[in-house]
Every structure is written in C-alpha cells, then in structure tokens.
Design brief:
Length: 372
C-alpha cells in the first residue's frame, strides 16, 4: 500500500502550468505602489498602519476598475510602509477575486529564495492562483546592510538567488549549492506549485547586463522607467529579444513600469503632480548623487519624457505610444509617488482603469488594424 504522505505523492499532485500572462496577443494593465507614508488633508502624516489599510483599499479599487494586477514595492526606510509585501498581498487576496497579486519589485538580492518561495506559494494557494513576482537587484540599497549583505556582492547575490528561486519554482526536488546560503539536497518545499505557475518577471532599470540575464533565464522583462525618453529603452528591448533568440528561449512579454498622474485637464494634472514628483525626486537626489530636480526638467519630462501626466485622453495616448515604441504588452501605472494623499491615489487608480485603459486598448487595436 502506498504512503499518501510520501514525496512522490506530493509531487504527483502538481498541475500543469498556467497560460502565460499576458497570453500571446493579449495585454495586461496593472498598478504599482511604493506605499509611501501619505498625508492627511491638513498635511499631517497619515499613521503607518492606516497607510497599509489604505493600500489594501486601493487594491480593491483597482480590481473594481477592471485592472489586471496590483504590485507592492520593497523598502526599509522611514516614511515607506512596503517592507512586508506578502502580508499586505494576503490581506488583499481576502478582499478580491480576480486581481493578480505581485511585487514591484522584490529585492531578491537580500532575500532568501527559499523564504520567497514559501511566501508566494502560500499567497498563490490562498488567492486561488493569483500570485506573481517582479524580482530585481534593488535600486534602493538599504536592505544590504540591514540584512548583513555586502554591496560588493551586488551582482553575484542576484545571480545566485535568481538561479535558486527559479529552480525551486520550475522543478523539485532541488539539489543546489552556492556562496550565500546553505546547500539544499533533494529539497521539496510546500505548498507545491505547478512548474512555471507563478509568473516571475525580472525588473530592470537600464542595465544591459540585467537585460541579458533576464534573457538567459528565459524570463519576461519589466522595465522600471523613471525618467528620460521612452525611446532610449528601445535598444535594451532589442538586446533582450536578440539574446532570447540566440539562446533559443521561448518568446516572453516585455512590460513597462511608469509613473504618472491623471486629472480632468492637462494643466491641472501638471500642476498637481509637480510638488508630488519633485518632492520624491529631490528626496532621492542626495542619496543617489542626482542633481536637484527643477521645474524646467519636469516640464521637459511631461512634454517628451516618460512621465504620463495629463487628462485621461492625453495619458491614454502617451501609454499607447510608449507600448508601441517598445512592443510592450504590459503596462504598470505607478499611481502613487511620494506623500500623495490616499484619496488622490485611489482616484488615479480608478481613472486609470475606467477612463485610460479602455482608450489605450482601442488605440492599440486601431494600430493593429491600420486605422489612423
């Protein structure tokens, strides 16, 4: 008589992988959030616990607005509440039924891939198959000293941990060894997920090496775009697709993660977003060695850069143009930068889903059919 609790029995229950997201020929529109500490109407900081409850409410609003996914970032600094995304995503799972639940990004370099597997396999189970990940090296580096890692190992950490995570997600049991964690021997983790069932995207900020790495692992590419023209990312997408083809990898989608703001008119959106965006950029400037962010640069970014700021009509045309330029089939709108009040974040999420995305779909369909 067979043992129903044996490893073989557990593995035999793994189902077939789900269809890729977005499926070939399909489109995906999501929300990314950094869970900044927001401000109340009187300008005072909203308490952190309330910020997290507001994030859950924003995700519920995203589903009601017809959006495909909601992703939470990862930071460990004052004024940012996104240090435990799986917990918040679990709360969102309990209040939604169709929204895919993910990250934007998981700083895999300073995480244990075994723990990441456990957390997101569990999220996938409780959400009935809606978990997804965007993983990256981390442009914010505070997690390295916090968790005892050296910045000198920045590249090697991500390479090794991505390798282990993908082995755990693609085929178990896993026997593995590396520099930065204890080895695994015939390791099986629970709960099980079908090979490839949890989509994993590689988040890239502009490094050709990162693009090639995503291609080597055969993973979808998510471009984190915070400035400059969309066109400058074209060569990276070309490099990604050439490398995928050279390595014989199956074709994978390309996505864009872009900041913006929507209001009734272009002028209103530009003026309301200026203090929000400049506040965030100027807070980051001394940490990253950037020049102070001035109004003339903001105006240039809105006019011809990557920020999507304006009326629903304007934002829709900017989103469609950017997706056409890069051949992207996924667009994640970052509707909350800096201390934007919760009501403004929620309103922008709703307007993106209800007013912008339907127009983008029409514009892209017209392009496909040759309508001017």
């Amino acid at each position: 008589m067979s043992n129903p609790w044996s490893q073989d029995s557990a593995l035999s229950t793994r189902a077939e992988p789900r269809v890729a997201d977005p499926a070939p020929g399909g489109l995906h529109f999501g929300i990314g959030t950094f869970a900044f500490q927001t401000a109340d109407d009187d300008g005072s900081p909203t308490p952190g616990p309330q910020v997290l409850r507001d994030v859950v409410a924003e995700a519920v609003a995203a589903e009601r607005a017809g959006l495909d996914s909601f992703g939470i970032a990862e930071h460990y600094r004052p004024g940012m509440m996104d240090s435990a995304a799986p917990v918040v995503l679990g709360a969102i799972a309990s209040r939604t039924t169709t929204l895919r639940l993910g990250t934007a990004v998981t700083v895999l370099s300073t995480q244990d891939p075994v723990r990441v597997y456990n957390e997101y396999a569990t999220l996938d189970a409780v959400s009935d198959g809606r978990a997804q990940l965007i993983v990256g090296r981390g442009s914010a580096i505070e997690s390295f000293p916090l968790f005892g890692f050296r910045l000198a190992d920045y590249e090697q950490l991500f390479e090794e941990k991505l390798d282990l995570l993908m082995r755990l997600l693609r085929e178990q049991p896993v026997t593995w060894s590396g520099r930065f964690r204890s080895p695994l021997v015939d390791q099986v983790l629970e709960p099980s997920v079908a090979p490839g069932a949890i989509p994993v995207w590689v988040g890239v900020g502009g490094s050709p090496q990162s693009v090639v790495r995503a291609a080597r692992f055969g993973l979808p590419l998510m471009l984190g775009i915070i400035g400059g023209s969309i066109e400058r990312f074209g060569p990276l997408v070309d490099l990604y697709r050439r490398t995928m083809q050279t390595l014989g990898q199956a074709e994978q989608p390309v996505g864009m993660h872009v900041h913006g703001f929507i209001a009734d008119t272009d002028d209103e959106a530009i003026e309301r977003f200026w203090p929000v965006w400049s506040g965030m950029m100027n807070a980051e400037a001394p940490k990253r060695g950037w020049a102070p962010f001035r109004r003339d640069r903001y105006d240039a970014e809105v006019a011809a850069g990557s920020l999507v700021v304006g009326s629903p009509e304007t934002v829709a045309r900017q989103v469609a143009a950017g997706m056409r330029t890069l051949g992207a089939t996924r667009f994640d709108f970052v509707a909350a930068a800096s201390r934007m009040p919760h009501k403004d974040k929620r309103e922008n999420i709703e307007r993106f889903g209800l007013e912008v995305v339907p127009h983008v779909r029409t514009l892209l369909a017209d392009t496909a059919t040759g309508v001017a």
